[in-house]
Amino acid sequence: MTPKRLLAIGFIFACTAAGWFILGHTLSWRTHTLNQRLDQEVTGNWGAPIEQAHPCIYYLAPTGNESRRLIQPDRSRITVDLRHDPKKKGLLWYRTFRADFEADYLLRNPTPIPQTVYVRFDFPVAGMRYDRFTLALAGKTTGKAPANGTLTESVLLGPGEETSLRVSYQTAGLERWQYSLRNSPRVRDFTLRLKTDFTEINMPAGAESPTRRSTTPSGWDLLWEYSDVIGARAIGMDMPAVVNPGPVAARITFFAPVSLLFFFTVLLMLGTVRKVNLHPMNYFFLAAGYFAFQLLFAYLVDLVPTTTAFLIAAAVSVTLVTGYLWLVAGFPFARLAAVAQLAYLVLFSYSFFFRGLTGITITVGAIVTLALLMFFTAKVNWSLTFAPHPPPVLPDPTSAQPMP
How far is CA 300 from CA 24, 93, 173, in A? Predict the structure, then answer.
């Protein structure tokens, strides 16, 4: 292997990396453009993130400094059933879900005189669809339509008299569900039970953790119980993370030069040890076979599931590279190269399907590669390997003997 050939291989690597850079930016642009166009469509069809507020309960006291006096429910029993139902649009998965909400509140007139107690119920998102909606105050179901996402009812209660408020509905949302306590100064006898049909649970930032939890055959049964709490924060649940084909394909493409660098390094070292001197043109075709993986995967994810697209693209690329090396250098060399490609292309790229594994995958791959190369090339005489080959000695025509 001469320095000139190494420069040629480096130039091929740089050109392939430039192609990956262009492909990665194309994928990012497609994903961003589709996201801008589809966000509004998905929100219109499935709604927005849901934040259900604690009901606002009050009575009017015209003689006080503030005419509206807030009341907290004496008891709250809330049940929520979340069913994850993600939807795929273009290169993105949207974390959509369905929610069944039921709540029973106990209200009491805290004054020694009769009061008209008002209940204001705020819907999570104005204009969103709510199926089987029911609001019953003192056993009387309201027939009103909400105005600007708010529904207000009232009931006359005697001194210390109690009554019930019941609310239930079914709806769909996006990304997360949350219950807000409206910065209530004090919460008494409060219970919220949340059931999921998924096992990956993640509380939104600033949300309370459940006081009790247990697993179910399909997910979790989570319970928040407050007997008497001051400063209780919101309760919520983020939908499980999903692998978005567009961003994953873009990240795989942008990091592909690292994979190819490892692969070319292994080929150079294997060639040195096994006396297989590949020409730069061989490296050109190998780089093209490597590039086929990202190119095919980038456009297959539009048509088939992400994992299926990944497996098809990996099989095509490995077949191209291994088959070519088999023809050029023989089966033993191609077999070793196939193992390297599976490690550096397939396993390395698959790590992008899992959050937080890319960095450690690159680190471990680099260390293992270094260890193997140090072990197998310890006996190589690098001075002879990179020494320029002398030109062939041609016979001197003047020294030729005359024919008899």
Answer: 15, 15, 29
